[in-house]
Amino acid sequence: MLDQPIAKIENLRVEFQTKDGPVVGVEDVSFDVNPGETVCIVGESGSGKSVSSLSLMRLVEFGGGEIAGGRLLFDRKEGEQINLADTDQDLMRTIRGNEIGMIFQEPMTALNPVFTVGRQLTEGLRLHKGLSKKEAEARALDLLKQVRIPEPERRLKQYPHELSGGMRQRVVIAMALACEPRLLIADEPTTALDVTIQAEILALMDRLKRETGTAVMFITHDMAVVAQMADRVVVMFRGNKVEEGTVKEIFENPQHDYTKALLAAVPKLGEMKGKALPEPMKLLGRENQNLDPIAGTDEPLLEVKNLVTRFPVKGGFFRRTVANVHAVEDVSFTLNKGRTLSLVGESGCGKSTAGRSILRLVEPQAGHINIDGKDIMALDHNELRAARLDMQMIFQDPFASLNPQMMLGDQVAEPMRNYGTHSSVEMQKRVEMLFDRVELPRSFLRRFPHELSGGQRQRVAIARALALNPKLIIADEAVSALDVSVQAQVLNLMMELQAELGLSFLFISHDMAVVERVSHDVGVMYLGRIVELGPRQAVFEDPQHPYTQALMQAVPIADPNQRKSERELNFKPIPSPIHPVGYEPGPSEYKEVSPGHFVLTSESGY
Which residues form the ABC transporter domain (predicted)? Predict the structure, then answer.
């Protein structure tokens, strides 16, 4: 019976018991997954997409939920169909991992930190397939080769913390595929990854699906990934399915208002072709917004010259410095008032360290940093504190950067209180004004961080960064953890504030489509150096450095007609930035290919 769907979800309803009575996580959802097809489930945080997948694995009960109605039919290998909603936990244990594999969103928490990668990979094989230790190890090695992990023999003996995020995610995929499941559930498997690694993992999953005939249920909020992967799309909103169709129908002719709004909020690479200046995104339901391009000025605000930041690696009996991590190596750029300079690159390329070095949150080894005429490197502790009135930072994870025990109004007022810039009446007025600016209701002043969603918390972080009227804001991956529609609103907010207050942004990100939307200038970083720097239009429309070209090639585009094939993605593994103590790399040398557009030429190449 090949035409029979592998999984059929019928009228699923999931409830969570809370102190205030039951909360409905999924109200009424039905869809099928057929053999060898990828069904993408899209929606924002809280739409119930992960809950549906956890219900299918019957893991939702371990998170305090219960399946209150509906049937979950699953077609087993032997051809019998069972309803997972009322299967006992013993049989579920056989099915989980063996017949339904799951890839979780956060690879670090999905792996056990105290066991080696090899031990975790062989566990399922020995349990479900009854292989001997030797057979299981041979199969584990085979799996790591399949997911293209370099030096697989070495990886089997390593622990999860010794691997990078992308490698850990590949191990999780290898574990999910170990027993050749009939159905693979992937819950946001690429959200935390870099563009290049994401492109490889998507191509890998696509290839494995074709080779093994596995059905894939792919959960994501990234519409570009949907365009790349999906055969069919299910759009969810507030616990209900609002639209379902083939990937072409959804992208080319969306019917439901929510789907239209979702697609309008996606920054697409190539949208800004021919435009020299950034401009806010056109969002549905906001007719009166200002969409003028943001010109900026020609007056320099921040000048960075030959910045070098290294971290010591200690080892041996006396904990001596045995090597250095060359995180930022000879970086120079200028950022003008009212403009945005973006630093892009993969994890570990040094972009966040560069941002922190400018504020001296990390002490640089060498270089000059000049903000509005002040030499930041020459300041002592007290002068640096005063200089920080002009520069603020927005971090990637707003939950970690807010104090969970303080009310939000107090947190936004705290910088003003620390510097004594406003009287208490003025301070209260300014906090209310800032909340209005970031479009949060004033009732939130008395709330705590855990009562807000991710996007709302990020707005509080932006309000707090603006409290002292800074000239420069360094935004370190400020929108990477947000949903598409929330991300679009936060980006528009940042651009509106820039247009009105003349702010300068140093925008650190790995999302090329977002960078294209917000930047005046772009610097591409690789292994601690800027390999290409110039006006955004020049860098994006005419990339010169091979690394920039590879990075552009890897970006998935939110259009199902422009899918990438695996052949197009040829990335060299990134060499190690760790060098022995006496090592002195050469300086960065650039050639100017067009006015203001510089490309690295020195021997430190790509």
Answer: 7-263, 302-552
Distance, in Å, from the CA atom of 416 to the CA atom of 244, rounded to the nearest integer, reads: 50
pLDDT at residue 482 tops 80: no
The answer to whether residue 197 sits within a structural domain is yes
Residue type (1 letter), 526: Y
Which three-class secondary structure string do you get for 379-423?
CCHHHHHHHCCCEEEECCCHHHHCCCCCCHHHHHHHHHHHHCCCC
pTM of the model: 0.80
**Does one domain contain both 476 and 417?**
no
Phi, psi of 20 (to 5 degrees): -95, 20
**Which residue bears the tokens 């259009």?**
559
Please check the confidence at residue 536 and state whether its pLDDT lies above 50: yes
Q: How many CB atoms lie within 10 A of CB 211?
A: 9
The proportion of the chain whose per-residue pLDDT surpasses 90, expressed as a percent, equals: 36
- Bridge-based pairing of strands 215-220 and 183-187 is parallel
Q: What's the gap between Cα 175 and its chain centre?
A: 22
Tokens of 419: 């510097």
pLDDT in tens, 86-95: 888 888 888 8
pLDDT category of residue 415 using cuts at 50, 70 and 90:
very high
Judge whether 276 lies within some domain. Answer: no
Q: In 3-state terms, what secondary structure has residue 494?
A: helix
Q: How many CB atoms lie within 10 A of CB 276?
A: 12
Residues 75 and 17 in one domain: yes
Beta strands in 543-604 (DSSP E): 578-580, 590-594, 597-600
CB of 142 closer than 8 Å to CB of 190:
no
Tell me the C-alpha distance between 5 and 495, whole Å. Answer: 47
Q: How confident is the model at residue 571 (pLDDT cuts 50, 70, 90)?
A: low
* Among 536, 566, 537, residue whose Cα is nearest residue 553: 566
Is the Cβ–Cβ distance between 6 and 185 less than 8 Å?
Answer: no
For residues 376 and 383, give the distance between their C-alpha atoms in angstroms, rounded to a whole number. Answer: 9
**Rg (alpha carbons) of the chain, rounded to whole number:** 25
In angstroms, the Cα distances linking 199 to 292, 396, 568 are 33, 22, 10
Task: Give the H/E segment covering residue 122.
Answer: helix 117-129
